[in-house]
Amino acid sequence: MQKPSRPKTRRKYDADFKNEAVKMLANGQTVAYVSNALGVSENLIYRWKNQNQGVKKVSSEQSELALENQQLKDRVRQLETEREILKKARRAAPLSIFSRQT
């Protein structure tokens, strides 16, 4: 008599487990070695590696945008300061270069 077959359940791996697998690859281990050591398929290791590279790409783009944003904020602050200085100079010397005479 045969046992009724149960549907295969998928194992779930947490982010730390996946990150450790990718770190092993970064340390020079082969995908086959990591796969055997952790007991997961090579396809999963490749998938985790690709996902990790995508995360790094996004974070580097975000850091570039954050740097550009900070530079633009600094430039705006500088221009506002210059504008305030020019306003004060115009008020202090109404008949100077800043005034037009018609």
Automatic annotation (TrEMBL):
Name assigned to this protein: Transposase
Question: Which Pfam families does this UniProt record tie to the protein?
Answer: HTH_Tnp_1
Q: Which InterPro entries match?
A: Homeodomain-like_sf, RD_transcriptional_regulator, Transposase_8
Any single GO BP term = DNA transposition
Presence of the UniProt keyword Amino-acid biosynthesis in the record? no
Question: In Gene Ontology terms, what is one molecular function of this protein?
Answer: DNA binding
The coiled-coil segments of this chain are 55-89
What SUPFAM superfamilies does the record point to? Answer: Homeodomain-like (SSF46689)
- Keyword terms, alphabetized: Coiled coil
Q: Which Gene3D superfamilies match?
A: Homeodomain-like
